[in-house]
Amino acid sequence: MRSRLFDSFKSLFITWVSVIVFALVASTAQAAQTIVIFGDSLSAAYGIQPNTGWVALLESKLKQQNSAYKVINASISGETTSGGLTRFAQMLKMHQPEIVVIELGANDGLRGLSLSDMQRNLNSMIKLAKAKNATVMLLGMRIPPNYGIQYTQKFYAIYDNLAKQYKLNLVPFFLDGVAGNRALVQDDGLHPTAAAQPKLLENVWPKLESLLKKAN
Fold this sequence. Notes:
Layout: H1 2-31, E1 34-39, H2 54-64, E2 70-73, H3 81-95, E3 99-103, H4 106-110, H5 115-131, E4 135-139, H6 149-166, E5 169-171, H7 197-215
Parallel strand pairs: 1-2, 1-3, 3-4, 4-5
Helix pairs in contact: 2-7, 3-5, 5-6
């Protein structure tokens, strides 16, 4: 009788532990879902408090929605596509993201760098991410017309061409509604102010949200 009771208790205990372990594993798997923002100063909150940047606002928005996703900001001020490519593989290895939002190219354009190199670098990052089963989203950029019509048009077309080639979600112009608005740009004429950050998130959110819905 005593042995039978002990066996029943033991079986119940094992079942209970198994349920807890399963719940913990499931919870850990949920919590491990990661979005990496891989950009330059526009995403690195240059010139403003980090907690007012659009990436921080995105993180707050996801928390308010009790989303399973966490946000890693891997952006570096001054980054070019070539610089980004040199650290991209290590970023993938370190964070193992489900989604990578690439916001690079502005510094290539402003420095008048090779557009074929820029496209090749972005293409390589996309391929590396896809090889790790990460979904890529692109934030498109534009540069001032004083760089010449041919250069500016080719620059802008790079994002659209890559998005079509790889069927990526694309924000056509990340700074839409901000660029050229003196009230929303810092004294350098380039970087968005803290007041502009909600608008940047507004530009990104619809395309990103659609990816999150597909993942769920």
